[in-house]
Amino acid sequence: MTTFALAALVLIMMPGPDQALITRNALVGGRAGGLLTMVGGVLGLTVHASAAAVGLSALLLASATAFTVLKIAGAVYLLWLAVQMLRSAARSRREPAADEPVTVPPRRGAYLRQGFLSNALNPKVALFFVTFLPQFLSADAGSARAEALLFSAVFALLYLAWFGLYVAAVDQLGRWLRRPAVNARIEQVTGVLLAAVAIRLATAANH
Question: Could you list the residue ranges that cross the membrane (predicted)?
């Protein structure tokens, strides 16, 4: 369990689409926006982790058609998010410099939805759990499913713990990070990163 927890934490802490999206939404919607995106993200991960534990993800990965459909849907959604953020970055760059941060009305449901869909529609997350979890399971087939569910729960808790601390840190730096020039650059980097992930996802081989 300790080995799994350490490996999972390292993977969670690695920069990627989740971190970029949570950072952006924590700046736009404050701590609530970041935390809701985080909760949505862990719910999306839980879909795949639970499916992997009961063997459904293996069936998905065995079907080229199902995998391709999910892959395209995920890529389109991430690309749509990227375009929205690049447009927001362009608007922010046109804002006059000011000491006060630019405020945006909260869209709490959108934050939760973005976090959830960005992971739930990503077949690479399914592939990750199908290949990652078995490395830590015992050879006993009878207990493997229970262990997989337990490890999935541990992964989710570590995800919440790490990004909960991360959102708190971003919120503390929020006044400086929300300035138009800084916010525009963060939006731009996030948009480019999500677009790159979308393109990579769409062009990746099915297995």
Answer: 58-83, 116-137, 149-169
DSSP 67-78: HHHHHHHHHHHH
- 11 falls within a domain: no
- Tell me the mean pLDDT in the region 46-70: 73
* Alpha carbon distance 107, 114 (integer Å): 11
Q: Are 145 and 69 in contact (CB under 8 A)?
A: no
Task: Find the distance separating the first CA and the last CA of the chain, reported in whole Å.
Answer: 28
Quote the pLDDT of residue 97: 47
Reading the block at residue 113, the tokens are: 């939805």
In a domain, 199, yes or no: yes
CA dist., res. 180 & res. 92, Å (int)? 5
Residue 4 forms part of a structural domain: no
Helix pair angle (141-172, 2-13), 10° resolution: 40
| Per-residue confidence band for 56, with pLDDT thresholds at 50, 70 and 90 | low
